[in-house]
Every structure is written in structure tokens, then in C-alpha cells.
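lol ok so funny story. i was supposed to be doing the assay writeup but got distracted and ended up predicting the structure for this chain instead. priorities right. anyway since i did it might as well share w the group, maybe its usefull for someone
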Amino acid sequence: MSKYIDLDLKFLPHPNTMRVNHVVGKAAIFRSINHILFTRPGERVYNPDFGIGIQNRLFEPNDFIGLDSLKTDIKDQIKNYEERITVKNIELQNDLYNLEIKLTFYLNTEPSNEITFERTVKQIR
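and the output, tada:
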């Protein structure tokens, strides 16, 4: 896997170098996907189109049209804001209280290596 580096947003210093730690590799990609999924549109300054706001979509009607719209939004957002990967497949499972996301993708530098990102978002209200 190529070395992808992002800043650790906890901003904890490394004990020896006292520099901010880095998140590398697959963890950096997963963190980026989480940011895309959970940032609400308009929440990021100077970039109002960034994000899906998936937590707001939990309360939408549980039908094919809503899930297809969400699938399209996920694919478009990742294509626009995460250039290191290419999405191969998106699976969404929705019941009354949970939305399960399974995203299969590959790194553009390693097209033969498929990676799966899975996340469950739960309603708590």
C-alpha cells in the first residue's frame, strides 16, 4: 500500500519528537471517508458542497428512491473529494433504526487490492 499521510486530528504530540502524529495508510483513507459521510453540506467553511450529512438521512423514508439517492451522493462525494481511491461497489442496508454502509474500493495506486469500508449508523432518538 502506498503511504498516505493525514494529520491526526487529536493533535497529540509524538513523545520523542513533540510533533503532531500522523495517520497513515488505510486508516487515513477510512478517516477521510468518515469525514465525507458525517460532514453536513454547508458545514465546511468555503466549501459548502462538501459532505453528505448521513446522520440527517437516517430519518428519511426507508424506500428504494432514498437509498439510491444516498448511494449516488456517496459515490459523487468520494469521486470529488477523495482522489486516492476509486469506488467499486456501494451496498446500503436500512431497517427501522440502523443504516449499514459497505463500501468496496481500491487505491488508484494498487487497483488489484480491494478494500472494504463498513460502517453502521444508528438512530438514537
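The domain at 5-122 is CATH 3.10.450.40 (Nuclear Transport Factor 2; Chain: A,). The chain has three helices and five strands.
back to the writeup now i swear
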